[in-house]
Design a protein that fits this description.
The complex is a heterodimer of chains A (308) and B (319).
Chain A: H1 3-46, H2 63-69, H3 72-103, H4 110-117, H5 119-122, H6 125-135, H7 142-149, H8 163-190, H9 195-203, H10 208-236, H11 240-245, H12 257-267, H13 271-302
Chain B: H1 24-35, H2 46-75, H3 79-83, H4 98-106, H5 109-141, H6 146-157, H7 165-174, H8 181-187, H9 189-205, H10 209-217, H11 222-233, H12 235-251, H13 254-259, H14 268-275, H15 284-304, H16 306-318
Helix pairs in contact in B: 2-15, 4-15, 5-6, 5-8, 5-9, 5-12, 6-9, 9-12, 10-11, 12-16, 14-15
Chain lengths: 308, 319
């Protein structure tokens, strides 16, 4: 057999691979191109048009962006989104890590406890948000009732009626839903920490904090980076919790960028303006994605694989 | 060395380490180190364990589970007790199923359940088929550009529905899918495929190449290899991806809210919040019953497949 014939056979093998790859990728690619990539591009295009519901508009340049730039409510929603994301993520991380460390101890009914801890995460967000809505009810709130009976407050708290109370209340509900995800994922990471390291550190006289700081934390860092990127991403783009509990009220005080874009585009019919608000979220999402990418690379390096 | 204030020191009657002990303090210690994963915590006293572990854990469990207790309690409370401010709201005196009866017989609740089930099952099956094929191609067929495509699919996982629903609503309208379950069946896979593909790629990587080579030598085609070898071996991964996808579909809200308008096509999460909330008077009993019933299918699926579920959740983050 000549070298040329061998090379030809290899080329045809690669060609058949490419063909097979194409057919195998086709269904997934079709879904993602038609219902994900195309709308992503269409959304950016829409944000430069004056489209309304039922009428595809004309190109108007950056007018929508200029309009929302001067809009107080838009900036309020941006501030709310950041407040919501930062505060909720910090608490989700701290409480999630704490819960993961507790669940990693030797406790009775461990498997059962681990299973029920995840319940807030699997139950539909809207449905648990409705439960919180009822817990926060101005007239019948169980929290207010209990605090009054304990003598800690003398009148019922208006959880969702006052701007700052409402912000705190939705953040608490978000933390409640997010902690189990962070905890269970970090627990999986904790279980990969080699036991011998803890023994060695204990024999060397390290205390609890030193063990955590110099063994547990460095080994967990990559998984923390990934989990928190996901958590930040999903908190930043949250919609359902706010929609179910406050619909952005009172007087826009709890609007996030996602709920504001829904209100402007779908309820107000102003698709172009709503799309502009969505498009304004993309730079922040890109920043989070880059962060996640570096987190993943870091992880590969730590597992002894080559960086890609 | 044997200072009694040092909790690490072996008791005075302990054998010397290195003398290959089969019993006694060192053996017990070694055994404990092997069977327990919490490190040195057996050195804590009972009181310390109570304050450092059980108390915080109890507070966590109380806070995480309280809303479910409250949902359940409210759903069986008669209306008189719900608005009675004199009684103790933490308990119910005359439990009733009236709210559930109202939901099942006087609202479209069974229809909403059916819609959600239909959309979730069909979208999950479609996504699994597409994801198995895509993941197999990305891991094993090694076509040109496979790595880039894999990276793009991961990026697709990070594109949130809340920036896509506005343009998608136009597309749904143009394809005449508005207010039809097909709108959800076709759009949900975009949320599920990236995640499932990523998860399944991890499973496929763990299947030995040799098995496929044997099949190739025996004259099997790619489809046969996929259905007869790869598919049976990755059943646990497919179950994980399926359960997680089903839960994601069941919980999806923003597409269902935007693309569906008539009551008889709504899914449970959207219907509970839009159809059961009417006017200024909130029927809390019926709302909580609706929330509870709507959570039941995912809770049931979850309780049967906890381990698969956790594996898929952490697997997608880890791989």
């Amino acid at each position: 057999m000549t070298a040329a014939a061998g090379a030809g056979r290899l080329t045809s093998l690669q060609a058949s691979r490419n063909l097979a790859g194409f057919w195998f990728m086709l269904p997934a690619a079709a879904f993602l191109l038609v219902f994900l990539s195309y709308p992503l591009g269409l959304g950016i295009w829409l944000s430069f048009t004056d489209s309304r519901i039922g009428h595809v508009g004309a190109w108007i340049g950056a007018e929508n962006f200029a309009w929302i730039w001067d809009d107080e409510v838009f900036w309020l929603s941006v501030r709310n989104t950041f407040l919501y994301t930062v505060v909720a993520s910090v608490f989700k991380f701290a409480l999630g890590l704490y819960l993961a460390l507790l669940l990693n101890k030797h406790i009775p009914f461990k498997a059962f406890i681990r299973a029920i801890v995840l319940l807030p995460f699997i139950v539909p967000t809207v449905l648990s948000a409705i439960a919180f809505w009822w817990i926060y009810d101005a007239q019948f709130s169980i929290i207010s009732w209990s605090l009054v009976k304990l003598g800690l407050i003398d009148h019922y708290i208006d959880f969702l009626g006052q701007p700052n109370n409402a912000r705190a209340s939705v953040i608490v509900a978000n933390i409640w839903r997010g902690v189990p995800f962070v905890a269970i994922t970090l627990l999986a990471g904790l279980q990969t920490v080699p036991q011998a390291l803890y023994e060695a550190a204990t024999i060397d006289g390290a205390n609890r904090w030193q063990i955590f700081r110099h063994i547990t934390y460095p080994i967990l860092t990559p998984i923390i980076a990934v989990v928190m990127t996901f958590s930040v991403l999903f908190t930043f783009t949250d919609f359902q919790l706010i929609y179910a509990m406050t619909r952005g009220g009172p007087v826009n005080a709890t609007h996030l960028m996602a709920t504001l874009s829904y209100q402007r585009a779908i309820l107000g019919g102003n698709l172009g303006e709503g799309a502009a608000i969505s498009t304004a979220m993309i730079p922040f999402l890109l920043a989070a994605i880059l962060f996640s990418w570096f987190g993943l690379q870091n992880r590969k390096w730590q597992q002894g694989e080559a960086d890609e | 060395m044997n200072d009694r204030s040092d909790p690490l020191a072996p008791p005075l009657d302990a054998e010397e380490p290195g003398s290959a002990p089969r019993h006694g303090w060192w053996a017990r210690r070694a055994e404990r180190l092997q069977t327990q994963s919490e490190g040195m915590d057996y050195l804590m006293t009972g009181y310390q364990r109570l304050v450092m572990i059980y108390l915080p854990l109890a507070i966590f469990l109380f806070v995480l589970l309280f809303p479910f207790y409250w949902m359940g309690l409210t759903s069986v409370k008669p209306n008189e007790e719900l608005i009675d401010t004199a009684g103790n709201p933490w308990w119910v005196i005359h439990p009733t199923l009236a709210h559930f009866r109202h939901l099942v017989f006087e609202t479209d609740y069974p229809v909403w359940m059916w819609n959600t089930m239909l959309v979730s099952v069909v979208a999950t099956v479609l996504s699994l088929i597409a994801s198995v094929m895509a993941a197999y191609a990305l891991v094993r067929v090694r076509f040109r550009g496979a790595r880039t495509v894999g990276g793009l699919i991961f990026l697709a996982y990070l594109v949130p529905p809340s920036i896509l629903f506005i343009p998608l609503s136009i597309i749904v309208y143009q394809y005449k899918l508005f207010d039809s379950p097909m709108a959800l069946i076709l759009t949900y896979p975009t949320i599920l495929i990236p995640f499932s593909t990523w998860l399944l790629m991890g499973y496929f990587k763990s299947i030995p190449y040799e098995l496929e080579e044997c099949a190739l030598v025996d004259g099997a085609g790619r489809i046969q290899i996929l259905t007869k070898i790869v598919f049976p071996l990755s059943i646990p991964g497919i179950i994980s991806a399926g359960i997680f996808s089903f839960t994601l579909c069941w919980n999806e809200f923003i597409y269902a809210l935007t693309f569906i308008s008539s009551s008889e096509h709504k899914t449970v999460p959207v219907a509970v919040i839009s159809e059961l909330v009417s006017g200024d008077v909130y029927h809390w009993g019926a709302l909580m019953a609706g929330a509870l019933l709507g959570s039941l299918p995912v809770a049931l699926v979850y309780s049967f497949f906890v381990d698969h579920y956790v594996a898929s959740m952490t697997g997608a983050v880890k791989d």
